[in-house]
Amino acid sequence: HRAWPGLIEAYRDRLAIGEGWDPVTLFEGGTPLVPAPHLSEATGCQAYLKVEGLNPTGSFKDRGMTMAVTDARARGQRAVLCASTGNTSASAAAYATRAGMTCAVLVPSGKIAMGKLAQAVMHGAKIIQVDGNFDDCLELARKTTSEYQSIGLVNSVNPVRIEGQKTAAFEICDVLGEAPDIHALPVGNAGNITAYWRGYSEYQADGVTGKRPRMLGVQAAGAAPLVSGAPVKNPETIATAIRIGAPASWNGAVAAKEESGGQFRAATDDEILAAYRFIAGREGVFVEPASAASVAGVLAAAEDGWLKPGQTLVCTVTGNGLKDPDTALLGMPEVKPIGVDPVAVAAALDLA
Length: 352
Ligand code: F0G
Hints:
Layout: H1 7-10, E1 33-35, H2 37-43, E2 46-51, H3 61-74, E3 79-83, H4 87-98, E4 102-108, H5 114-122, E5 126-130, H6 134-147, E6 151-153, H7 159-165, H8 167-176, E7 182-186, H9 191-205, E8 214-220, H10 225-228, H11 250-260, E9 263-267, H12 269-283, H13 289-303, E10 312-317, H14 325-328, H15 342-348
Parallel strand pairs: 2-10, 3-4, 3-6, 4-5, 7-8, 7-10, 8-9
Antiparallel strand pairs: 1-2
Helix pairs in contact: 3-4, 3-7, 4-5, 7-9, 8-9, 9-11, 12-13
The structure holds ligand F0G.
Protein name: Threonine synthase
Pfam families: PALP
Enzyme class: lyase
């Protein structure tokens, strides 16, 4: 048994790695594929959760960031910049500091989960709140890095990011021994669905697997440009991680859907919150609201017959629930503390 070496080492021969790269790693990847019996029962499928919240900074972004920051450092860049709804900024901040580089993040003011902000603060990033949404932040990040070329752009418009993120598809196939029938994931800026499709396609092309899954991309109903077919000007959803109206990897997402015989689907905030509580409450896996969109999507797809009984189904749950305690505790009634008294405990448990 050898310790997991991080994804650049683990998949070195399958990644576009630059000459002389010295990996900047926090030993990301190698996340568990957890069987989900309750989701299996609800969908009639054999369901698994790919738990990406167990990456070093608590989201799948670390897969892209180990590559992007390694690349930026190898190019001699001293600083990296990203736009973010929170997870990219947390990841960029951690990897940049690991690399001895400076990191600046552009975030939509007031719309990022508290845990993610705390991460960026602790890793020493320069945090710049922008009076606008994610799409505005990304445009600003692109303009800035094209004018100041000593700063590396580490959003998923950087192709090196996508390259790293495709390894999640490899890991799933390595565990299952074949690609699943269906792969569901939340879609915001659409880098991740593009990356998974690349990973599955490469494994199939090389004969490692015999098939590719149908891709189910799930967006929040208030931020569902891929479902409606047009950008959304003022995206709105409780799932702030995917509050995005103009996905940068639009074409990649459409290709994944079309080539796989897949589907885009919208989940309402209520459906997302129900799925969020379902997998935390039943499966024991606490994810952030955006991550639960994938589960909301498959529950709806089972309902209307798009899923077929017996299919193998993987849902990527993209980020850790601890990042957003505010949403978890929404609507919690205030409870009075009890006395130090077993009778009071029993009474609180309705056992008295
Ligand atoms: N789930 C989570 C938890 C995310 O943070 C994101 C994206 C997505 C899903 C969607 O992935 O953009 O590749 O389609 N978060 C970005 C960020 C936008 O800034 O952290 P995507």
